[in-house]
Write a structure and sequence with these properties.
Length: 234
């Protein structure tokens, strides 16, 4: 049985969006969009992005076997590329589809666990490949359907479903994690000018249990860290 884990999380994202960034964002404007709902037209686009991502995690020693209180930690900076599609209907329903791919090394500092439970200090550089797919569904409130909201603002409650794939390329073997997450939150937009928009998004949710895959050919000298403890998914 594969080991499974889950956790709660919160994410805050702030974006500056400008039509002037033609290499990064392609706005697809519907000629029939109502002048009274300018957010419907400005929220119809395809966007490509490149970025750097800081990856960091630490596995806590819950059994008191290490002097520093943790079994391993891993940190590193990775490059990523992304593609996103957003489409807001005249009815103010809003849809988002997004995919992100990132890769790069991280520095592993921790222990290896033998079959008898003993720990051996270990340091290595780990290769990583991660993919993320997400879909958002929301309903936008603005001056058109909620007059108390100022004309230059829009507030959109969101539901998000996400699927994650993470492959760690260790010195002795590879291990792969597959898991999903679901969240709810709020997106707030300010249309300062037709060509400039400030957007902040907050999501809070829960990571679903993860399936961990490791090779069937591991030997006693190639024991994985404690999290990866089985050879087949549930």
């Amino acid at each position: 049985m594969a080991q499974r884990w889950g956790s709660a999380f919160g994410v805050l994202t702030v974006c500056l969006l400008s039509r002037g960034l033609a290499a990064q964002t392609l706005n697809v404007v519907d000629a029939t969009a109502s002048a009274n709902n300018r957010y419907a037209s400005t929220n119809r686009y395809i966007a490509a992005s490149v970025s750097l991502t800081q990856q960091s995690y630490r596995e806590i020693d819950q059994q008191g076997r290490t002097s520093n209180g943790w079994l391993n930690q891993e940190t590193g900076t990775q490059s990523s590329i992304g593609l996103a599609l957003r489409w807001q209907l005249e009815s103010n329903l809003s849809f988002d589809l997004e995919t992100t791919a990132q890769s790069g090394p991280t520095e592993y500092d921790g222990y290896l666990q033998a079959g008898n439970g003993s720990l051996t200090p270990y340091k290595a550089r780990t290769g990583n490949v991660a993919l993320r797919y997400s879909a958002n569904l929301g309903y936008a409130f603005n001056a058109q359907n909620a007059p108390p909201i100022p004309v230059d603002w829009q507030v959109t409650p969101l539901l998000q479903l996400t699927r994650h794939y993470w492959q760690r390329n260790l010195a002795q073997y590879e291990e792969t994690y597959r898991f999903g997450s679901h969240s709810a939150g709020l997106r707030i937009e300010w249309l300062a000018k037709p060509e400039f928009r400030l957007e902040a998004q907050f999501l809070s949710g829960k990571t679903q249990p993860a399936s961990v895959y490791v090779p069937d050919s591991l030997t006693a000298t190639q024991t994985p860290p404690p999290l990866a403890t089985s050879n087949s998914p549930t």
